[in-house]
């Protein structure tokens, strides 16, 4: 498996024994848990450049080099683009601790969401009739109360007509089937909280391509939508087009803060570009 697609958990720099001569690329790759190719790439782009060479010309990593490498890997695991990681690490005016604190908050929220999903899976595994019905027991009135004033039975009917044959629809229905009334209430409260934070960001003048906006985009992707089915940045971009193109979505966000629909779409597209995704060329994955 390529290390770019796996979770990175590295030992602390102090826990890695480094001789005075330093460690070779192969030794660092094995002890830290990344590929030699990744280390070469980091060196080529100036992100982590070992400061020493062996008598034969091979790269040798010092303790300081490994500490820098581990910082890079943490940021990469958090979803930052490599160019932005270099700015965070090298720019003395950047408050790196504040960025890490913000990312820690997002990670905590993601962990909580994953724990909810584990509970949902446990519920489904224990429901013997799950294969016979994926319809939640909530009545239309209860669903309206759970999702707030924006709920309309016509939306559900339209969505089922358009997406009912997709894997995402089936996944969402299974998630909903495992949820209690309290779960729906909690989901509505969390989504309203995310909307409020998005609106406040726009009022505060946060740029759509800023780190602050990217953090909110991740929260929106992971919790507002990702609670129902598996989300990717490409899917997020496609869904965001509806925020400006569909009058109902646009009205929802404009009621929160004028200009929010366009701002959110711009922020989602900026986040995609920062991760090498062209918003104009995405497809549903």
UniProtKB/TrEMBL annotation:
It comes from the Bacteria. Transmembrane segments: none annotated. One of its GO terms (molecular function) is DNA-binding transcription factor activity. Pfam families: MerR_1, TipAS. InterPro entries: DNA-bd_dom_put_sf (IPR009061), MerR-type_HTH_dom (IPR000551), MerR_fam (IPR047057), TipA-like_antibiotic-bd (IPR036244), TipAS_dom (IPR012925). CDD domains: HTH_TipAL-Mta (cd01106). Keywords: Activator, DNA-binding, Transcription, Transcription regulation. Residues 22-91 form the HTH merR-type domain. The keyword Transcription regulation applies. This is Transcriptional regulator, MerR family.
């Amino acid at each position: 498996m390529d290390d770019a697609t796996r979770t990175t958990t590295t030992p602390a720099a102090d826990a890695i024994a480094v001789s005075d001569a330093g460690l070779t690329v192969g030794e660092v790759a094995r002890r830290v848990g990344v590929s030699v190719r990744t280390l070469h790439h980091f060196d080529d782009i100036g992100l982590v450049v070992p400061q020493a060479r062996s008598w034969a010309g091979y790269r040798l990593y010092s303790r300081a080099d490994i500490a820098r490498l581990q910082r890079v890997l943490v940021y990469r695991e958090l979803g930052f683009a490599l160019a932005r990681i270099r700015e965070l690490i090298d720019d003395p005016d950047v408050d790196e601790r504040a960025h890490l604190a913000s990312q820690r908050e997002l990670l905590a929220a993601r962990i909580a969401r994953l724990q909810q999903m584990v509970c949902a899976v446990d519920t489904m595994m224990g429901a013997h009739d799950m294969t016979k019905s994926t319809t939640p027991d909530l009545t239309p009135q209860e669903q309206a109360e759970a999702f707030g004033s924006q709920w309309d039975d016509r939306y559900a009917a339209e969505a089922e007509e358009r997406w009912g044959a997709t894997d995402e629809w089936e996944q969402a229905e299974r998630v909903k089937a495992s949820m209690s009334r309290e779960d729906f209430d909690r989901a509505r409260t969390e989504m309203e909280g995310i909307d409020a934070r998005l609106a406040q960001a726009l009022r505060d003048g946060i740029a759509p391509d800023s780190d602050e906006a990217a953090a909110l985009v991740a929260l929106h992707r992971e919790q507002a939508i990702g609670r129902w089915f598996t989300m990717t940045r490409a899917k997020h971009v496609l869904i965001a087009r509806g925020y400006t193109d569909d009058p109902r979505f646009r009205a929802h966000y404009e009621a929160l803060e004028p200009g929010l629909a366009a701002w959110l779409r711009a922020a989602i597209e900026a986040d995609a570009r920062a991760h090498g995704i062209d918003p104009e060329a995405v497809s549903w994955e």
